[in-house]
Specification:
The protein is an alpha+beta fold and 406 residues long. The chain is built from 11 helices and 6 strands. Strands 1, 2, 3, 4, 5 and 6 form a 6-stranded mixed beta sheet that branches. The radius of gyration is 33 Å and the shape is elongated. It starts with 24 loop residues before the first helix and ends in a 5-residue tail after the last strand.
Length: 406
């Protein structure tokens, strides 16, 4: 096991992100398969063409018309589904072309071709703005009924509800895709703002830590330079002061860097949620924990434990579900904060502990805590405990949840 958490966007090379154009040939093929599945309503026109009910010329024209219809439909759905309508004349003309082809093919080749109006309705629902889709979808159903009067009235009546429902269902899918895109952008914006805020905080802290020290060092260096020819003893004292101030500044910087490197449980819980979701693992995590009175060393040790455990779940376990619990326990040795991470996977079950668990055990022992990890009945469970006061952690009888399930 390693100690780096799975970054956001893990396994995105295996999935097609909703509402985005394919990034490679594999994604294009997967998206094409998903769309082609819904060409099932073309079975009736295809059966009509191969049945031999039409003249050779009509059959050839039918195949050409069907190929043109499918090409236009796939271009519309493949390239524009989930995207905001920009008033593009090309999109409008393509939807109109679908409608014209559907009408022409139904009037010339008969009722088996009425299923084409399902795709016209889908195109209206996925490409037009909602206010336009709300009247073009019923209009498509009305046109189909009128065309059905030309020898396929019963078939048209059977399809009218399907045309309307699928069209409006696609408006919902389109809104879902657009919402997913907006949420992804919002999350990226929040991450960028958080990074900017962290940079500002680092700049403020460094200014506060080093501003006074560097100014003092500069001043004393100038004094030492002026005193050096005539008063070497006083210059030596200034140099000694410079050394002392420099050492203190170095200590302050190291403490600040240690504070920045120290993980926090709230941040690790949020990161774990993202990592598990990206890995298609159902995550049951506590809400934002209340950590009043929790020593920094305890929080840091448990945060490292959470990171290591989630990394193991994502990369090695093959789990479908992961449950994280964070509770305060009263033990014989005093109160402890207990972190439990359990998954239903089959991986990461080697009897010999890996480098990650070994290092984690050592980290917890330095904080006065303990670690238990091993197979359970339906998966793997890791339990880390760290004291809330001085002493060593152990299993206790009473518990108090730190956060509710999310």
């Amino acid at each position: 096991m390693t100690e780096d958490p799975l970054p956001d966007g893990a396994r995105t090379d295996r999935i097609v992100r909703m509402g985005e154009s394919p990034r490679n040939l594999r994604e294009a093929l997967r998206k094409s398969v998903w769309i082609v599945i819904w060409l099932v309503f073309l079975s009736s026109p295809v059966h009509d063409l191969v049945s031999g009910h039409h003249t050779p010329a009509a059959t050839a024209a039918g195949w050409l018309g069907l190929a043109a219809f499918v090409t236009v439909y796939l271009m519309l759905v493949f390239r524009h589904m989930g995207k905001a309508f920009t008033g593009s004349l090309a999109v409008t003309l393509m939807v109109l072309a679908l409608g014209v082809l559907a009408v022409a093919l139904c009037l010339t080749l008969g009722a088996p071709w009425l299923g084409l109006f399902v795709y016209v309705s889908v195109a209206c629902g996925t490409t037009f703005p909602l206010r336009v889709s709300y009247w073009t979808i019923p209009l498509t159903a009305v046109v189909m009924l009128l065309v059905g009067l030309h020898g396929g009235e019963e078939d048209a009546r059977n399809l009218v509800l399907l045309v309307v429902l699928i069209g409006f269902a696609m408006t919902g899918v389109r809104q879902l895709v657009r919402t997913t895109i907006e949420l992804r952008k919002a999350r990226a914006t929040v991450a960028q703002l958080a990074a900017n805020e962290e940079r500002l905080r680092l700049a403020r802290d460094l200014h506060d830590l080093l501003g006074h020290s560097l100014s003092l060092i500069t001043l004393k260096s100038e004094l030492a330079g002026r005193m050096l020819p005539d008063h070497p003893d006083k210059a030596a004292q200034q140099v000694a002061d410079i050394e002392q101030v420099s050492r203190q500044a170095l200590v302050d910087v190291r403490e600040a860097v240690t504070g920045y490197r120290r993980p926090r449980l709230a941040g690790e819980l949020a990161g774990s949620q993202v990592a598990l979701t990206a890995a298609d693992v159902v995550a049951d995590l506590p809400a934002e924990p209340v950590l009043d009175g929790v020593p920094e060393e305890t929080e840091s040790a448990l945060a490292w434990a959470l990171r290591e455990a989630v990394t193991n779940v994502v990369r090695h376990s093959g789990a479908r579900r992961c449950t994280v619990e964070l509770v305060r326990r009263q033990t014989l040795d005093g109160p402890v904060l207990e972190l439990s991470v359990e998954d239903d996977g089959s991986g990461g079950s080697s009897a010999a502990p890996g480098n990650g668990l070994t290092g984690l055990t050592e980290r917890l022992e330095k904080a006065g805590g303990s670690l238990e990890a091993g197979r359970v009945r339906h998966g793997f469970r890791l339990v880390a405990r760290a004291p809330l006061e001085g002493g060593r952690a152990s299993v206790g009888a009473s518990e108090d949840p730190v956060g509710s399930g999310a």
